Backbone:
């Protein structure tokens, strides 16, 4: 019965001329999301509101689900649109709306009429009273409650008449594309897809980089990362995923550096390569799924040591989260099941039994000098041979 959706968005940060950028980007993202849904949709901006109009049959569930992945949307209200007509006739449409939208009819309700078409006779107050009366007569078990109604029934009288009362939560945030681009270090774990989702939610476009180490890490492990990128892309839009072959560098570190420093040194080279790729693709920052204290390489000392090689800001949106809090978001955004598939990543193979938890930067730098004859060429090769996959 619904033929349109009224889209409500949060007002924060979208005043003045930014409002148009925000709205136009939001509409572009909605169009992108709806392209994959069965049906014909058109989006219109009217008097500070955004409507999704449908032509002909469409898949309601799929359309709602697509819109629930578009950042910037706070609420999705399914709307019934009828021709404008006299009050008694509209009353019948309202009765049929309530009949179809609710299985039982014993709730409290409140009418809210907006007369956008000022030629329509009567004031909003009068129309509220008239429609309210019509509904009370049709549904004797319903009651009016103006303070805390179970059904808030809204009627907007324009060229046509829009009836709605339900609100489906959107994902919130800002439309992707309103806030620059960042490079996500995406591993096959639980945390990094969540980190990408969180930064993307603030309107940031995402590129990603994955370090793999064949034959120590399998094709299947790489496919898992592609799958995760695709799940994040449901929210963020298309992601350019750079797959960097890290084997040579990892083996060199393994051969030449103290094993308790392996992870830190490896993480430093990952950050370096990620930053180079980020610069080349116009990213303004890096994103990781690090959380203080989660593992040896994420103590405050380790984070400081890793961070030291970057000049770009590194965004770590889950830095203060407990594992369970991250898992909760992973479950919500549907990445969890994929993340827990048991495919090794390069970090699990080259881990030391007793990694340092308080790396000393001087020692780390000294260890890294053991790589000085080979590392520049290796970094160059890693960058040059990186494979880029467009994931959408
Ligand atoms: P995740 O954080 O995704 O669950 P993890 O817990 O195994 O993975 P670490 O290995 O400690 O995390 O790495 C911390 C962060 O470094 C990750 O969140 C991710 O951003 C980045 N990272 C680690 N390994 C890789 C990799 N192979 N490719 C790309 N980024 C990686
Ligand atoms: Mg982690």
Residues:
């Amino acid at each position: 019965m619904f033929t349109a959706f009224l889209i409500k968005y949060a007002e924060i940060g979208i005043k003045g001329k930014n409002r148009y950028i925000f709205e136009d980007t939001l509409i572009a993202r909605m169009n992108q999301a709806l392209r994959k849904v069965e049906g014909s949709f058109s989006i219109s901006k009217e008097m500070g509101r955004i409507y999704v109009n449908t032509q002909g049959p469409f898949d309601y569930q799929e359309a709602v689900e697509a819109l629930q992945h578009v950042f910037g949307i706070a609420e999705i209200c399914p709307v019934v649109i009828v021709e404008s007509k006299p009050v008694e006739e509209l009353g019948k449409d309202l009765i049929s709306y309530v009949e179809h939208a609710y299985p039982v009819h014993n709730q409290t309700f409140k009418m809210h009429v907006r007369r956008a078409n000022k030629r329509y006779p009567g004031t909003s107050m009068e129309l509220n009273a008239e429609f309210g009366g019509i509904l009370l007569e049709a549904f004797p078990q319903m009651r009016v409650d103006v303070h805390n109604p179970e059904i808030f029934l809204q009627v907007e009288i324009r060229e046509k008449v829009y009836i709605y009362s339900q609100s489906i939560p959107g994902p919130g945030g800002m439309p992707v594309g309103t806030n620059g681009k960042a490079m996500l270090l995406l591993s096959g774990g639980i945390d990094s897809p969540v980190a990408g989702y969180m930064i993307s939610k603030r309107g940031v476009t995402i590129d990603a980089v994955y370090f793999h180490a064949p034959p120590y890490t399998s094709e299947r492990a790489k496919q898992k990362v592609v799958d995760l990128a695709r799940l994040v892309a449901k929210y963020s839009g298309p992601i350019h995923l750079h797959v960097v072959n890290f084997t040579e560098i990892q083996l060199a570190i393994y051969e030449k550096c103290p094993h308790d420093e392996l992870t830190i040194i490896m993480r430093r080279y990952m950050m370096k390569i990620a930053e180079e790729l980020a610069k080349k693709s116009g990213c303004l920052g890096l994103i990781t799924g690090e959380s203080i204290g989660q593992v040896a390489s994420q103590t405050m000392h380790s984070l400081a040591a890793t961070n030291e090689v970057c000049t770009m800001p590194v965004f770590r949106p889950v830095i203060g989260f407990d594992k369970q809090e991250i898992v909760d978001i992973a479950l919500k955004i549907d990445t969890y099941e994929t993340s827990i598939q048991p495919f090794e990543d390069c970090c699990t193979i080259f881990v030391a039994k007793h990694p340092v938890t308080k790396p000393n930067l001087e020692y780390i730098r000294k260890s890294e000098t053991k790589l000085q004859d080979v590392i520049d060429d290796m970094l160059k090769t890693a960058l040059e041979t990186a494979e880029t996959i467009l994931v959408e």
The mean pLDDT is 93. The chain is about 40% helix and 20% strand.
